[in-house]
Every structure is written in structure tokens, then in C-alpha cells.
Protein 1
Amino acid sequence: MTDTPQVAAANKVKLVKTQAQVPLTLPVKAIDDKGELVDKFVACERPLTVYLNWRPIVTLMTLGAKPESLTLGYLKNQGFISDLNLLESVIVDWDVNSAAVISKETSDDIEEKLSEKTVTSGCGQGTVYGGLMQGLDDISLPTPSIKQSLIYQLLKNINAYNDTYKNAGAVHGCGICQDDQILAFVEDVGRHNAVDTLAGDMWLEQQAGADKIFYTTGRLTSEMVIKVAKMGIPILLSRSGVTQMGLELAQKLGITLIARAKGRHFLVYHGAETIEFDCLAKD
């Protein structure tokens, strides 16, 4: 169902934007290892076909938590849109599983972008287009500074989130953090959906990323590193591991890459010089 469109303001930009709501989990019956019937929940998964000026771009499989931000973040990260001032509307209709974005931005090269398709190592099979790699040479990230003790506190604070995962599992979570506080947290069936949603939120709200930390439960692939760099965030923290190309891009772009982070353990794959190890004497 499409909710009533609202006018959202990003600085002075007026954008007609729905706030389409759908259930994130559904109750089901299961048999446990004792052979007993138990009440459980499963995470929802639904298709969302993204249209740009009525041209179909991609169908995303998503939890559906914030479909408008997901749609805008995906299109921006893939290089299909870039000018917030030229956006007119983003309308989500769950009756037909669609998200339609209208923009005045010229998209003469849309067919060329769509032809440069790559199947990625995302959850299941992800797809990226040629525009994802555009502008990487223009990215200049600040050199961050972070304390070991702050990483520990942030990981502890993250435990208060992951509501859908705790309830039903089967999802990834991503968060925008500042110091040890979580400013925003999104869960989805794919980690790239979650990062695109946060990217869409940051873009609409014109938030700077220089003083932020990006947290994800997913592995740090090349695509994840690129998207975080485009958000202007210099620190990437993950509960999972790192791929070779993800590491190479972090080294090129100057991202502090921290992985296998859980409890009081983590591995710094790049940017160790930006971390103050202030808890060594306590361990």
C-alpha cells in the first residue's frame, strides 16, 4: 500500500516522498529440536522494483524498512542520480512492489550505465553498474583518530540494536556512529540494502561523514568500501571479515578498516596508526 505522500525538506530542497510501512517480521510455527511446536518469527523479504523517470533500473530484495531512502541511496551510489536539487519525488507502492523516482537530472547515459553490469559478492547475488566506480579519484577522506576504548564501548552499545535479527535472524545491520553513539541503524536482508538506505538518509539530510564511523555486520567487500567512501566516512568497522579487493580499496582511499570486531576483539587491516591503543595495559 502507498502511504500518503509527504513533502520532505533536505536543506531547502522540497521532495514529495512517501513513508510506506510494511511488517518487518511475520509470526510462524516451527518444530524445535525436542519435537515441540513453538511460535517464532521470520524476517520478511519482498521485491522492490526501482524506476527512474519510469525506466526500470533494478529489482531489490528487501526487508522494506525504509524503502524511499533505500531507493535514493541505491540510485546515488550506482551513479544514476547525483543532484539533490533536481529530485522531484520518490513514491513507493507496495501493492505493486515498486519505487518510482522522478528527477529533472539528465540521464542520457542511462543505457550505457545499465549495460555495464557486474554480478557481485553481495548476499545472494548483487548487481552493480558502471557508475559505482565513478568519482573515486575525487574522494578525499580526513585522517581519523579513534581510541581502542571507544571501539569497545561502541561495540557494546551496538548490542542494544539488531531488533529484527534478535527477533527473527536472517538480516544484516548497518549503523552510522559518532564517537560511541549510534545515530542511525538499519537492518535488511542484504548488507548493501542497509548501507544504501543509510546513504540515502545522509544524502537527504545533507549530513557530513568526516566525523562518523560506519558499522556493519557484513563482510567488507570492494562494494562496501566504495559506498562508505562515497558517504565521506573514514572509519569502517565490521563484525565480519575483509576481502582482498576491499582491503586494496581501503588502502587507496585512506579508510581505517577494522574487522572481526566483537566484544573486546578486533583486527585492524589498514589504518592502525589512526588508533590509540589505550587499553593494552588492561588486557
Protein 2
Amino acid sequence: MGAVRLGLSQGVLEIRQFMRSREQVMFTLAFPAILVIIFGSVFSGTISEGVKFTQYFVTGMIASGLMTVGFQALAIQIPQERDRGVLKRLLGTPMPKWVYFAGKVVMVAFVAVLETVILLAVATLLFDLRLPDTAGRWLTFGWVAVLGITACTLSGVAFSSLARTGRSAPAVVTPVALILQFTSGVFFVYTQLPVWMQETAAVFPLKWMCQGLRAVFLPASFGAAEPAGSFELGRVALVLAAWCVVALVLCLTTFRWTTKRDG
């Protein structure tokens, strides 16, 4: 229980630091909801029988939100903390190293849940989003979200070692996140993208997160419109789990507590 309490305490500290940054709160929580309002108002038609564009778009925005919280935020935040010497100072304290990562995980989980609730509330109230109507769909929503946020969080920690300085981190991370969003079926219907773009996006987790969430929010018949003719939930789970393993290995082998100038 002492270890759990220590991890939760670090998580509460991380959440407080996040909430004190108005710009970060605005971008992380409000920006996805604003995009739903804009796209939902502009594209009010349907993409197939019984499927409105908003219903499709929300699935991509939820997945994109999870990626932003887990991957983009950590891949930018950690290099900045490393550059300021925060990580180096932590090495000189009695606090176990794992507590730092536990705090990040708690913060990511808190923000991801809050952001998802806001997105669902906005889409339901303003655009009549149809929420999952069976326990099975909610269960699918749960495991896709957990595997997805885990893969993104681990990938964010691993990717944080690429930025040479904290100042350069946004320039390194943001283009990657944007490219994945535009090629993974977030802003456009995935099957309408060029084949080479689809095949490239299929290497990364976001595409599979979007596909898994479409199985939750879209009619079962829409699965026939997917590239493989179904939602492929088994493959979604396999790919996301594989990314969790690969990203974890990269975290363990590449993570740096100090900058190169610190030695």
C-alpha cells in the first residue's frame, strides 16, 4: 500500500501541475471539443446509410485525444523537464525511479478520461451522438481505450529521447502527431485515403484505435465498408498489444534521465 500511495501522490502532483497550465489545459481538453463542433457543423451529412459524419468523426477524435494525452504530451513534457534538470534532481533523491513514471501514468489516465467525457458530452448534446447501447460495446470501448492509451503513453516516453532539447521537442513531436491524424482516419474517412497512405498508417497504433472505436459507435453493418470487410477487433487488440511491448522495450533501452551536456 505504501508503493500505491507513493505513486498516487506523484500522480496528484502531476495533475495539479497540468491544471495550472492554462494553455495546456485549453489545448488538451477544449481543442478536441472545438474541432467536433466545427466539423460537426460544417459536415452535417451522412457518409453511408444511417451513419452521420459526426458519428464517424467523433470516433477519430476520441482516439486522437488519447494519442495527444499519452504520446504528444509526454514526448514534449519529458524533454522539457529533462532540459530544466528536473529528472537529474530526481536521481539525487531517495524516491524510486518508477514513481516518476507512475505519476505520469496517473496524470495521463485522469486527463484521458476527462477529455473523453467532454467529447462524448459535446457530441451527444449538440449532434445527437448515439452512445453504445450494449454492454459488449462498452466493454470493447474499454479495452480499446486502455490498450490504446497504454501504447501511446509508452511510445511518448520512448519518443521523448529523440528531442535534443526541451525547446525543440514540440517541433519534433507535433508534425508526427499531425501526420498520423491525417492518415489514420481522424479527419477523413479512412477508406477514401490513398492506398499507400492507408498502408503507412496501418503500421501505427492510431489507425487501429480509430478502427476499434468505430466498432463501438458505428452500426455493425459499417464493418463491411472497412478495408478488410470487418472491424477486425482481434487484429486491433493484437497490433495495440504489440505496440505496448515494443514501446516498453524502447523505454527501457533508450530513456535518458540527463541531457547530453550533463554526460
